[in-house]
Amino acid sequence: MFIVFGNRVYGKVDQTSSGCHLATSFFHICFLPVIPLGSFIITQKHGGQWSGIPVKLSSKSVLTAYLRGLFGAGILVLFLDLLFLPQAIQAGMDREEFIFVIVSGLFGLASLAGMILSYKWRFFSKANPEKEAWIHGHFEWEAREATEIEGDKG
């Protein structure tokens, strides 16, 4: 069994009209964010590399990353429920097992809805005018100090 760990960017929030957005670099284990290492205004993406300007740790980005990790785990539970439900029905579930399957399935459906909303709801996905001005202000002042950080879409 392999355990994957390292640094990765998660918690993409506040995308601006110019394509910049906030995200947070995390130490991850098995692609689940564990420890936030720092937030960045992501200015460019190319391959597995990001160009970003370090900013104060964004609680919105950190919370979004943890929520999306929880939602991803819930979606996995839903998938496993759907995968093993036919065998469990054929084997004859007792009442407690049936209730567990229903509750875990509802958690999985709620996680799927939460994951979709976290990318579609403007509160998370788009920067409001004040935040956009703040991001562009940082970008103009610190564009020369952009640092390269590794990670995939978050």
Overall pLDDT confidence: 85
Question: How many helix segments?
Answer: 4
- The strand line-up of the biggest sheet is 1-2-3-4-5
Low-pLDDT regions: none
Order of helices and strands: EEEEHHHHE
Radius of gyration of CA atoms, rounded to a whole number: 19 Å
Percent helix, as a range, is 40-55%
Cα end-to-end separation: 25 Å
Task: Please tell me what the overall shape is.
Answer: elongated
What's the domain count? 1
The largest sheet is: 5 strands, antiparallel
Q: Beta-strand percentage?
A: 25-35%
The number of distinct β-strands equals: 5
What structural class is derived from the secondary structure elements?
alpha+beta
Write up what this structure looks like.
With 154 residues, this protein is of the alpha+beta class. It has one domain. 50% of the residues lie in helices and 29% in strands. It is built from four helices and five strands; from the N terminus they run E-E-E-E-H-H-H-H-E. A five-stranded antiparallel β-sheet has the order 1-2-3-4-5. A hairpin with a 2-residue loop joins strand 2 (21-29) and strand 3 (32-46). Helix 1 runs antiparallel to helix 2. It starts with a strand and ends with a strand. The mean pLDDT is 85.
